[in-house]
Design a protein that fits this description.
homodimer, 360 residues, alpha/beta, Aspartate Aminotransferase, domain 2, Aspartate Aminotransferase, domain 1, 2 domains, seven-stranded mixed sheet, three-stranded antiparallel sheet, 34% helix, globular, transferase (chains A, B), PyrdxlP-dep_Trfase_major (chains A, B)
C-alpha cells in the first residue's frame, strides 16, 4: 500500500517528509558514519540536535527564558504522578477540572499523593461540555490548578485558557500541543506526550516555569524530579535520543508550514469542514457542545450502530485507517492532528458522503 | 562517510542489517501504509510486533513462564528507584554490592527509600576487582541483593552469578544483557537499559519473577508499579512502540547469529584478542583484575596521557569512533557490544599497533 490516511489518536500519523528524512539519515547522519540512535547523547552532534530541537520548540510555542523545557521519558501517564510529586509541596492539595477520561486518570493518580479538589466536572453531561468558569469551586490553598485542554477520547476541547489568579495553571496538552497559538506565559506547567503532535511515543515534553522547580517531595524518584532534569539539560540519564531527534524534525517541519499560527488556521479549517459535514448529514452525529468541539479529535456516530463494522471495512479499503472510536466509548473517531493533511479530511468526507448515500 | 566502527558505551552501535530493515520499513510497514511509530499500540499489527519481540527475548535469554517480561520507559536510572519502591516491602532494607559508578548510583537512590547494606565494596582498589564472595557481609533481613554484573564505566565484570540463598538476586544488566548465556532462574529481577545490547535509549527491559510482583509501596507512581505494568502487558500507558519494534529486530538478528551462546563465544574472542594485545604491548595498559575484565567495555590507557588527543584524532580519521574514556575516569574505552563486528576490534588493534610503533 502507498501511504494511508491514518486517523489514529496516538501514536499518530507523522509528516511524510519527516519520515523520509529519518529514513534517509538512518544509517549515516550527515557523514558521521552512524545513525542518530547510535550516537552518544553527550556527543557534539547529538547535543546540537537536542539544542536545536529545544530552540525550535521555544520559537514555535513562544516559550520565554522564564521557563525550562524538558525532554523526559514516559508520557502523560507518568506526568500524572510527576506533577503532584513536584508541585503539591507543603500545601498538599490541588484543584483539578474533570472533563473526561484523561482528567479522571490525572485526578486518580494525584489523589494518591494529596488532597484533590475537583473544582468542576462535566461528567453529568457525559463529558459533552465544559462547565462555565464562573461555577468553578476553586480552593484558596491549592498548590496548582490542573486541566486537560483537549480530551483525546471525548473530543472535548477548551477554546479558552482558564483564569487562575491564585494557583499556577497546569495543563496536559498531549493532544493539542502546537496545534494553535497558546499564550505559554499563562501557565505554570505544560506537558505533552509526544505521540500525537510531536513525534514517537515514549517521550514527553514539559514546559515549566522556573520558579516551580526545586519543590519536589522527598520521595520523588530522581528521574521524576523536575529540578534534577532541568539542571542536567534532560540528560541526567540517557534520554530517548532518537525520539528527541524525530521531535526536532517535526518542529522543523512545523516551522516550514508557517508555525503554529498557520497550523491553527489549517486545523480550524479541517475541523470546521468535518463538523459542518457531520451537522448537515442526518446519517452522522457528534454529541459535543459546539462551543467546545475538539480541533484534533472528532468523534462521531452513525445513525445505525449495526453498520459500524461495514463503515470501518469500507474505510480501510480506501486507506482511511483507525477510525474506530476508543474502546471505552465506541462509535467512530477521526484524529486530525497537525500531520493529517487537509486532503485526508476531504477523502474522509467523500467516503462518509458516499456511505451515507448507499447505506443511510 | 560509510558506516564507522562506533565504540560508544551507549547509545551504542546497532547491527547494520537492523538499521537497513528499519530504514526500508520507515514509511510503510509491510503494506500497512504507515510507519511502526505511527501505529496504535493496540492495533493487531503492533501487538504482533510486541508479542514476537517478547517471545524472541524469552527464547534467547531462556526466560520461563515463572517470569514476567516488561518493556518499560526510562532506563537503568529510573529502575534505581523502581526496584526499592517495588521490592523493599515490609523489610525495608536491601543488600547492595558496590563495584563501581553504576553500583554507587543504584545505592544512592535506594538509600532514599530504605536501609541499604553495602555488603561488599571494591572501592579501595579503585574498583579494579570484585571482593571474594566469602567476604560479603549479607544481612538476614534483606529484601533483595542487588549487584551490577558489568560496570560500563570501570570495565569490571562478574564472571559468575553470586549465590544469594536468602534474598532474591537483582541485577542491572544494562551493559551485559544477552552478551553471553546466563541462568535467569538464579535471579529475582534482571533489568537492562536498551541502549547497549538491545536497541535505542528510552526503553528498559525488566525480567521479574512473578512472585515478586504486587509488593509495591503505596507511594509508588503507577507507571513504576511492576504489577500494573505486568497486568497490562506493558501497555498501561502508550509504550515506547518504535523502540520496542527495534528491540524486536535486534532479537531476530541475535537469533540469526546463533543466539546468546554463539554471541558469547564471539564476544569472548573479541575481548580476549583486545586484552591480549593490551597486555603484550607496553604502550597500553588495562588496570582491571584479569579475572574480572569486562567482555563489553574495555578501558585502557596510553603510556603517555599527553598523547590521548592525538590518539583519538587518528582513530576518528580511520572511522574508529568514540574511544574516549568516560569523563569521570579519562583514558580510553572501547565498548564492544554484540553489534560490534570482530572486524571492528581487528581494525582497532591494527590502529593501536601502528600508533604505538610511531609514537611509543
Amino acid at each position: 500500500m502507498s501511504r494511508a490516511y491514518n486517523f489514529c489518536a496516538g501514536p499518530a500519523t507523522l509528516p511524510e517528509s519527516v519520515l523520509r528524512q529519518a529514513r534517509d539519515e538512518m544509517l549515516d547522519w550527515r557523514g558521521t558514519g552512524m545513525s542518530v540512535m547510535e550516537m552518544s547523547h553527550r556527543s557534539d552532534e547529538f547535543v546540537q540536535i537536542a539544542e536545536t530541537a529545544e530552540k525550535d520548540l521555544r520559537e514555535l510555542a513562544g516559550v520565554s527564558d522564564d521557563y525550562a523545557v524538558l525532554f523526559m521519558q514516559g508520557g502523560a501517564s507518568s506526568q500524572f504522578s510527576t506533577i503532584p510529586l513536584n508541585l503539591l509541596g507543603e500545601k498538599g492539595s490541588a484543584d483539578y477540572v474533570n472533563t473526561g477520561i484523561w482528567s479522571k486518570k490525572a485526578i486518580a493518580e494525584a489523589s494518591r499523593y494529596g488532597k484533590v479538589n475537583v473544582v468542576a466536572s462535566s461528567e453529568d453531561s457525559g463529558f459533552t461540555t465544559i462547565p462555565d468558569q464562573s461555577s468553578w469551586q476553586t480552593s484558596a490553598d491549592a498548590a496548582y490548578l490542573h486541566y486537560t485542554p483537549n480530551e483525546t477520547i471525548g473530543g472535548l476541547e477548551f477554546g479558552f485558557i482558564p483564569d487562575s489568579p491564585g494557583a499556577p495553571l497546569v495543563a496536559d496538552m498531549s493532544s493539542s500541543m502546537l496545534s494553535r497559538p497558546v499564550d505559554v506565559s499563562r501557565f505554570g506547567v505544560i506537558y505533552a506526550g509526544a505521540q500525537k503532535n510531536i513525534g514517537p511515543s515514549g517521550l514527553v515534553v514539559v514546559i515549566i516555569r522556573k520558579d516551580l522547580l526545586g519543590k519536589a517531595r522527598q520521595e520523588t524518584p530522581t528521574m521524576m524530579n523536575y529540578q534534577v532534569i532541568a539542571d542536567n539539560g534532560s540528560m541526567y540519564n540517557t534520554p530517548a535520543t532518537y525520539s528527541w531527534y524525530l521531535a526536532g524534525l517535526v518542529f522543523k517541519w512545523l516551522k516550514e508550514q508557517g508555525g503554529v499560527k498557520a497550523m491553527g488556521e489549517i486545523n480550524l479549517r479541517k475541523a470546521r469542514k468535518l463538523y459542518d459535514f457531520i451537522d448537515t448529514n442526518e446519517f452522522y452525529a457528534n454529541p459535543i457542545d459546539p462551543r467546545f468541539r475538539s480541533w484534533m479529535n472528532v468523534p462521531f456516530t452513525l445513525a445505525d450502530d449495526a453498520l459500524n463494522g461495514e463503515f470501518l471495512k469500507g474505510a480501510n479499503a480506501r486507506g482511511l485507517l483507525n477510525l474506530a472510536g476508543h474502546r471505552s466509548v465506541g462509535g467512530m473517531r477521526a484524529s486530525i492532528y497537525n500531520a493529517m493533511p487537509e486532503a485526508g479530511v476531504d477523502a474522509l468526507i467523500d467516503y462518509m458522503t458516499e456511505f451515507a448515500k448507499e447505506r443511510g
